[in-house]
Amino acid sequence: FITPVRVLRGWLTLCSDYGSAEIMDANHKRFALIVISLRKARGFVGIDIDWEYPADSTQASNMIVMLKEVRSQLDAYAAQHAPGYHFILSIAAPAGEVNYSVLRLADVGQVLDYVNLMAYDYAGSWSNASGHDANLYANPQNPNATPFNTDDAVKAYIKGGVPANKIVLGMPIYG
């Protein structure tokens, strides 16, 4: 059984002011309403948002404001059109410390149903050294081959306040 969840994704850091307070204040309610219209039109049971990546504490705070607004709109829609139903809200979450250390993890854990940890693409053409694509642990004998690892990321999310039962491990099942 496959549950349809709409994924909204993008590499938003390419737009340098996307996460600014002015842009977010003006648009987070509008974005939430667009999410609801997608839900109505397509029948999705939830929304997964892929914001790669909040660059600083201001953008991380604005991300939480936006997620809370989406949650509020999903709940209001459910109350009116599907009483008792809970629409899923999740994010695609970074596994690299430089990115997840910026996030407000306790708030992420509170507002979301799931955190889909992107536990893949740890190495590639952008890397300075050959490495593993999705290693579970760091390799102390060859740290350049494992600059990221899933174990450290999961532990950091839990320590930061994300309940373990909300963490979903993304895997590289592409060829």
From TrEMBL:
Where does the record place it? Secreted
Record's keyword annotation contains Secreted: yes
The record's Gene3D superfamilies line, in alphabetical order, gives: Glycosidases
Family matches, as InterPro entries = Chitinase_II/V-like_cat (IPR011583), GH (IPR017853), Glyco_hydro18_cat (IPR001223), Glycosyl_Hydrlase_18 (IPR050314)
Q: Which residues form the GH18 domain?
A: 1-175
Q: What is its EC number?
A: 3.2.1.14
Q: What is this protein called?
A: chitinase
Q: Which organism is it from?
A: Trichoderma longibrachiatum
